[in-house]
Fold:
Amino acid sequence: MTTQRTGDQFLTMLSALANPHRLRILAALSERQVYVSELARELEMSRPLLHMHLKQLERAGLVVGRHEVSADGKALRYFQVAAFSEELTPERIAAAVQTLTDKSSS
Structure:
């Protein structure tokens, strides 16, 4: 992500990263793009659980998914890590808090 995240987007990103399964997924995807079934086998995770985690990572802007049809007609969903960089500093947190839509969180 090239622009600075809003407070809500920042919180979504931090929440997505606060899970060991999602960190393992990001680590695996940092090496290459891969389709869901292959990633599930590699991480020894059920496809429904993997889909749930991928959805949260995608919502946070940390991964990007795309559909592709294989030569034998199977629909495959590929994922790869999105380009992102975020500096975690007290100043960055203060800036993020200013744009939170749920003011009860601040």
